[in-house]
Design brief:
The complex is a heterodimer of chains A (about 375) and B (about 120). By secondary structure, chain A is α+β, with helices and mostly antiparallel strands. Chain A is about 20% helix and about 35% strand. Chain A has a six-stranded mixed beta sheet, sandwiched between helices. A six-stranded antiparallel beta barrel of chain A has the order 15-18-17-16-19-20. In chain A, strand 17 and strand 18 form a beta hairpin. Chain A starts with a strand and ends in a 9-residue tail after the last strand. The mean pLDDT of chain A is about 95. Chain B is an alpha+beta fold and about 120 residues long. In chain B, about 20% of the residues lie in helices and about 40% in strands. In chain B, the strands form two sheets. Chain B has a six-stranded antiparallel beta sheet. In chain B, strands 4-6-7 form a three-stranded antiparallel beta sheet, with no helix packed on it. The two termini of chain B are about 15 Å apart. The chains are: A alpha+beta (about 375), B alpha+beta (about 120).
Chain lengths: ~375, ~120
């Protein structure tokens, strides 16, 4: 198991550590629900050191990315960020990623999931072999990655950086002083709140963490683990690799068409076009509410009468909605909001209702 | 130190036996480890339970866990208020947070006294 540079910080907070994507990561500090509420109401500080971070440079970098992933890399302006997928030839999802176009020079920065990072790199090197001038550098070890998320995040981050935060748009990034050193930050996140992801040299991660808490604590900032991050992203209707999306799903199955641009020849494009020509996928990714006390969890059967029509992708107790929420890929005839279903938990059945995704979206 | 007027299972249930009746609950360590409790399912009075077999389920934000019985016997009473007030398990797992009262026919052979349970917790870190 790999450990992030903030390991001793987590120990000092007495975090509960769990294995995640090949890394030992904090799942919670004070409690998942309390941390999730802090992000909705004030702000949360996350260690995201497990995320894979890669730069792509060279004269063929744009052409390489056009082949590698589903979004239109050529149309990403300098300093902007796009969500995308890496697919296989059958259109099945190998990873979901963020593509950052460098604000200052030619090239890109790509953030990938921890558990897929090794495979992503294999795919990248294989695709890069089709092109002449592409250089791929892994920065996961040398850069730390932290997130500050929540309605108070902008005020807190403004105190940590010389980047002009009010003018930094959602899904944009900039270089500048971050904490005590030169780094970069993006207005991105995985919580459904306004927020930022911060990149600094690994050696300065601890001091940035401490400085963030010093500035942020009076505004309600607390350390948050992956447990709260998971329920926050689920409330916000954001997919998690290994749950809503994986090697068996296409972006069309998961309703992620917005991240797929048929403007360029990406791996898997032909397969997606065939699926579309045949009328699209037969299932929909649905939001589900479970208003009894039991929590629907990944793998539990979704039942329509005695027929199993799918399995839960993700589920959890939602502190924001004050009920249990889940997702599942369901046949189109059961996907209409309001449809009453059940899930099976051991030998019992509990009610489920189809609702519109996302469960939560912030009011600006 | 946990109360020494009762005995413990490795799975973090406690039982206090008085006049052939066992009061059963779970320890503060179990409650802290589960965190954010959402659901508790207890069996009805009149049913029989067997030691070392699950008698109920407790669910937290993170997972569903079985509850194991320290004794075999017939359930005389179940704490009916507890499933609707799971916070009691946090504030008072040793008294108000009791789960079952059972007429004991047999005790589990794996019961630990308070000192042995304490040692177990140390080894679990």
């Amino acid at each position: 198991m790999r450990e992030t540079v903030l390991k001793s910080i987590h120990e000092s907070h007495q975090a509960r550590m769990v294995p995640f994507g090949g890394w030992t990561m904090p799942v919670q500090y004070v409690g998942i629900l309390e941390e999730a509420r802090a992000v909705r109401g004030a702000a949360g500080l996350f260690d995201l050191g497990h995320m894979g971070r890669v730069t792509v440079r060279g004269g063929d970098a744009t052409a390489f990315l056009q082949r590698l992933q589903t979004n239109d890399a050529a149309k990403i302006a300098a300093g902007r960020i796009r969500y995308a997928m890496i697919l296989d030839d059958a259109g099945k999802t190998q990873d979901d990623i963020l593509v950052y176009r460098d604000p200052d020079e030619d090239g890109f920065f790509v953030v990938v999931n921890a558990g897929n990072a090794d495979r992503d790199l294999e795919i990248m090197h294989r695709v890069a072999a089709e092109f002449g001038n592409v250089r791929i550098d892994v920065l996961t070890d040398e850069l730390a990655m932290l997130a500050i998320q929540g309605p108070e995040a902008a005020g807190i981050v403004a105190g940590l950086t010389d980047v002009d935060i009010p003018s930094l748009k959602y899904y944009s990034w900039a270089r500048g002083r971050v904490g005590s050193t030169q780094g970069a930050l993006s207005r991105t996140g995985y919580t459904g709140e306004d927020g930022f992801e911060l990149y600094v040299p690994a050696a300065t991660a601890e001091s940035l963490w401490k400085q963030a808490l010093e500035i942020g604590s009076p505004k309600g900032l607390i350390p948050c683990g992956l447990g709260s991050r998971d329920i926050l992203r689920l409330e916000a209707g954001m997919p998690l690799y290994g749950h809503e999306i994986d090697e068996t799903t296409t972006p069309l199955d998961a309703g992620l068409d917005f991240a797929v641009k048929f403007t360029h020849d990406f791996v898997g494009r032909g397969a997606l076009e065939q699926i579309q020509a045949a009328g699209g996928p037969s299932t929909r990714l649905c939001g589900l509410r479970a208003d009894s006390r039991r929590v629907p969890r990944q793998g539990y059967p979704v039942m329509a009468g005695d027929r199993e029509i799918g399995k839960i992708c993700s589920g959890g107790a939602s502190p924001t909605l004050e009920t249990n929420i889940a997702t599942a890929h369901l046949p189109a005839e059961f996907a209409e909001p309001g449809t009453e279903l059940e899930f099976a938990i051991r030998d019992k059945r509990e009610p489920l209702k189809v609702v519109t995704l996302p469960f939560y979206s912030r009011t600006r | 130190m946990r109360p020494d007027d009762r005995r413990y299972l490795k799975s973090h249930e406690w039982c206090k036996i008085e006049d052939g009746v066992a009061t059963i609950g779970i320890t503060d360590y179990a409650v802290a480890n589960l965190s954010d409790l959402v659901f508790l399912d207890l069996p009805q009075p009149g049913t029989s339970i067997s030691h070392s077999e699950p008698f109920g389920e407790i669910e937290s934000v993170k997972a569903v866990s079985d509850l194991y019985s320290p004794v075999s016997g017939e359930i005389l009473e179940a704490n009916q208020e507890l499933p609707d007030d799971l916070d009691t398990l946090k504030t008072d797992p040793w008294a108000q947070g009791w789960m079952l009262k059972v007429k004991v026919s047999e005790e589990s052979g794996d019961l630990l006294d308070a000192a042995a349970y304490e040692k177990l917790l140390e080894s679990e870190g």
